[in-house]
Amino acid sequence: MQLQILYTSVQLDLARCILFGGVSIYAFPLCPIRLYQLSKAGKLCVPAMNVNDSVTKQKFDNLYCCRESILDGLKRTTDIMFGGKQVVVCGYGEVGKGCCTALKALGAIVCITEIDPICALQACMDGFRVVKLSEVIRQMDVVITCTGNKNIVSREQLDRMKNGCIVCNMGHSNTEIDVASLRSPELTWERVRSQVDHIIWPDGKRVVLLAEGRLLNLSCSTVPTFVLSITATTQALALIELFNAPEGRYKQDVYLLPKKMDEYVASLHLPNFDAHLTELSDEQAKYMGLNKNGPFKPNYYR
Asked: Is residue 174 a contact partner of residue 28, using CB atoms and an 8 Å limit?
């Protein structure tokens, strides 16, 4: 949806986009995917900066922010006590890592579902069991999706959940949970408080659906202003880079934010912690093959 709006807007005001230098995308995991698809199909009219995959987005917004907002959102909506609860987190990317870290710290028994063997191995090394959702769904107290994909929790899995299971989405839009299938004649929806619905089965079983499957951290909690500052700074620098770039540097394609700018965003926020960077000596910089002022990481670093 977001990409369709963007595509339409660019078509309507192509001259301004070209004058400005391009567009930058800072949203959900699906947005860069759609951008790359548009580029491959030759439909991308201007250069686009994929800010979603920048380090400042992946680490601070996805990991550090989500490990706090998952607890905030669940507490505000359900007043749940996490200790001893069986929780399954679908997806062990940066968002999933943040959610798992927070839940485990409060005593929840957390397991993971994953399609990626690298992420699955990371989960194992971090002390989490990697399972198939269909095999554990009956025992779960909380189900959290963090994938950026669609139909992660199907109607068949919703039917098999135990009474009182809490279902929420931290990943992308409202497509991860098959909410549409729950709007059927045999099921009753009961709004118990803002952003909290009980879905009641004919046998009396209730599943607690939060925010109608939309993003929990945007619908049921708040985003810290510090993270918003990092977000806005990264987005602004991406647009400044596109605007100031020499003609021909960026073609009608999708680009990652240069690491120099990623590091600059981070450096702007260090004074909040009274943090002081160590400086390389000339000898050390030469030994490492680096510029003393950065960037210190290769472009592929995430």
From this structure: no
What is the rounded distance in angstroms from the CA atom of residue 78 to the CA atom of residue 87? 15
Type of residue found at 110:
V
Residues 6 or more apart whose Cβ sits within 8 Å of residue 224? 65, 68
More confident call, 16 vs 236: 236
The pLDDT value given to residue 280: 95
For 89-148, what is each residue's pLDDT tens digit?
999 999 999 999 999 999 999 999 999 999 999 999 999 999 999 999 999 999 999 998
**Model confidence pLDDT, tens digit, residues 250-262:** 988 888 888 999 9
Sign of the alpha-carbon dihedral angle for 297, 225, 146, 96:
positive
Q: What is the pLDDT of residue 17?
A: 46
How far, in Å, CA of 117 to CA of 120, rounded? 5
Instruction: Assign 18 to helix, strand or coil.
Output: helix
- For 57-219, the fitting CATH number among 3.40.50.720, 1.10.530.10, 3.40.50.300, 2.60.40.420 is 3.40.50.720
Under 8 Å CB-to-CB from 153, ≥6 apart: which residues?
A: 90, 133, 143, 145, 167, 176, 177, 178
Q: What residue type is assigned to position 1 of the chain?
A: M
Q: What are the start and end residues of each CATH 3.40.50.720 domain in the chain?
A: 57-219
**φ, ψ dihedrals at 277, nearest 5°:** -75, 145
Both structure tokens of 283: 């000898």
